[in-house]
Amino acid sequence: MSTQITIGHDATGKPVEFDVEELLATRLLVQGNSGSGKSHLLRRLLEESAGMVQQVVIDPEGDFPSLAEEFGHVVIDGAAYSPGEIEALARRIREHRASVVLDLDGLEVEQQIRCAAQFLTALFDAPREHWYPALVVVDEAQMFAPSAAGEMAEDTRRMTLSAMTNLMCRGRKRGLAGIVATQRLAKLAKNVAAEASNFLMGRTFLDIDMVRAADLLGMERRQAERIRELERGHFLALGPAITRLPLACKIGPVKTGHQARAEGLMALPDTAPADMEALLTRDLAGDVAKAAPPPPPSAPRVEDVEQSIARAEERQVAPPAETRATSAVAEQIEAIIRAMAIEEGISFQSASAQYQTFLTRCRRERIIGPMPDMRAFRRRFAMAGAGLDELPEGTAARIMELAEAVEEDLLAPFLVIARAAHAGETQVDEEALARAYGTSSPGRIRRLLDHLERQGLVVVREDFGGDRTVMVPGLGDLATAAE
């Protein structure tokens, strides 16, 4: 079977071919400003290769579901599934070699990013026996691999960068060929863009993007102006799957797409000004009433409240199966966190690496359900490492109240100090404190205690022998940390 597809024609009318088999080994980067024809190019590539290789499309704008009608892609609405279900779908996609479009259009931006990151990570973590070749197309890749943090949460940024880096850097051995498309090269993380060996550069106007595109194409800086002059649907191509020298290419037509969308100008409606005013102002109050939230419900009768309380008490005696299932999932998650907390060396890893290890183990145990986010995981991991789950519930709650003002990076060592202080121990285990802080440096331990004291979280006293006595205000117990 031939692995060559035609994506367009050069200036002489000669077909420009794309080697799909070579693409699987070398990856592709597409760049072009809005309106340059970037999505049209991706659609052409997907349509021409649809019968050759499995395709997975990450679609944040809802541009590609129309592939389903012509080529049988399965459209997955990201807003309709929980995180655990998205990961389970990704595993089944790899197992059954299904071509799919993950439609994220119904989600907010940060939800899109988290959903795509979990989906890509599950694709990457599929069992070895399911490492079949697949094209993974990520449109608007600057959202999922940003060069700067922007407005998204830090744990979200780390999660999505890890997923995109795995796709582009390590995906080849797992059969995953990344195709990333972006409007701005300057906004795309360099370690993601650098892994592509094939390039299709469309029209762009900003100097920083033109210079980066020219560098990737091996062009001199003075030739970068050529990129600014490209017409809509025209791209400069380079790479082992296309051509060894930069080549101008006009992308060919496609079969699917937004048929109802009108390009260019349209005639305005032939409506008299008075009639147009009537259309705009007629029954505005009715529209406002439709959009207004419903009025609050009236207060229930006392008898109804009493009956509701009685029924609630009956349900508490025998919790429903769904509640028991949720409780079982929570117990599994807690067991994984406790096992990680006592594992040798894991506290010396970064917080993001710990969280990824946690998610991987949850997937390995096939835990389906809501997962704690990174901040919640770090707090529970710190509590398990300090042994707070062995204390009475009220005591643990009191310690966590005192820890509310503690920075996340310092929570684990603070809890170790507080746990020892509550137990009335005469000395805090220096190794336990270092392990919780993820360091083997005595100097860092001293600076940690000094910082906690400046924050008013501990009181430190040092005697002439060099021993430090540490008191946690609010607990009233003393602990000594040998220097």
Automatic annotation (TrEMBL):
Listed InterPro entries = AAA+_ATPase, ATPase_Atu1862_pred, HerA-like, HerA_central, P-loop_NTPase
Q: Name one GO molecular function term.
A: ATP binding
Q: What is this protein called?
A: ATP-binding protein
The question of whether Cell membrane is a record keyword is answered with no
Q: Which UniProt keywords apply?
A: ATP-binding, Nucleotide-binding
Q: Keyword Repeat on this protein?
A: no
The regions listed as transmembrane in this protein's record are none
- Pfam families listed in its UniProt record: DUF87
Q: Which SMART domains match?
A: AAA (SM00382)
Tell me the ranges covered by the AAA+ ATPase domain, including all copies: 24-214
